[in-house]
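User: Run a structure prediction on this.
Assistant: Running it now.
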Amino acid sequence: QVQLVESGGGLVQAGGSLRLSCAASGRTASTSAMGWFRQAPGKERDFVGTVSWGGRSTYYADFVKGRFALSRDNAKNTVYLQMNRLKPEDTAVYYCAAGRLPYGNRITTITDVGYWGQGTQVTVSL
């Protein structure tokens, strides 16, 4: 079992930055690939980015490449999503996710996910 708690969402102007945090706990937290997804109103939940269980490998959706960066601190069991140059279209609820299987390199689809956080709202204004 893995429990995930997100923090760091809020309201920011276009062009600004936010950093989301996801604190993981549970027996397999440190050996799970982690990722972020987002869901805007009336839309499907989309993949944003993922980091391998060891933190050495990251992978991003095309629409955030060069703007967002994932990192993880396994000593703290925390994953971070640094979001820069935010756009109004980045407005969504952002969900932290942990992989279903241990020692994974990435989670990019909903079927890869074993555990979800409760979500944190990010709103980008013009």
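The first strand starts at residue 3 and ends at 7.
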